[in-house]
Write a structure and sequence with these properties.
Strand content: 35-45%
Structural class: alpha+beta
Distance between the termini: 72 Å
Organism: Manihot esculenta (Cassava)
Low-confidence stretches: 12-25
Order of helices and strands: HEEEEEEHEEE
Number of helices: 2
Largest sheet: 5 strands, mixed
Pfam families: Self-incomp_S1 (PF05938)
CATH topology: Immunoglobulin-like
Helix content: 10-25%
Keywords: Secreted, Self-incompatibility, Signal
Subcellular location: Secreted
Shape: globular
Protein name: S-protein homolog
Length: 135
């Protein structure tokens, strides 16, 4: 019998284990859609600390996507460099746990257009204008 007022380690361990499994099992799909129009291709190279997705050429009207699991520490980050005829090179975070955990709960969708970049807000269901292209 345990003395009164003491908490056993087993319930705490089970709680931590369950919370870790919830975070680890969350799959996120990230997709970048080329909507530049007029047949313009988009070249993109995305990676994280652990995964290099390689350079991709996304034709007008197409998309490139990948799936991953967020890490326990809440530091998952996928970043991309992209370019097309108007924008020579642009760097952005395609998924940042700190920014996107609630906005992109299971999918993080990006739309690339001539005026800038839109991100789908999974909570509201609306496309939000996120970034202007540099001049």
């Amino acid at each position: 019998m345990k003395p009164p007022g003491r908490i056993g380690y087993t319930p705490v361990f089970v709680l931590v284990f369950c919370l870790c499994n919830i975070v680890l099992s969350d799959k996120v799909h990230t997709s970048i859609m080329n909507r530049l129009g007029n047949g313009r291709n988009l070249t993109i190279h995305c990676q994280s600390k652990d995964d290099d997705l390689g350079q991709q050429n996304i034709s007008d009207g197409s998309e490139f996507g990948w799936d991953f699991s967020v890490n326990v520490g809440g530091t998952t980050l996928f970043y991309c460099d992209m370019e097309w005829e108007k924008v020579q090179q642009y760097h952005f975070d395609a998924y940042s746990f700190a920014r996107d955990f609630t906005r992109c709960e299971s999918q993080c969708l990006w739309l690339i257009s001539t005026e800038g970049m839109y991100g789908l807000n999974g909570q509201t269901g609306y496309w939000e204008f996120m970034y202007y292209w540099p001049n």
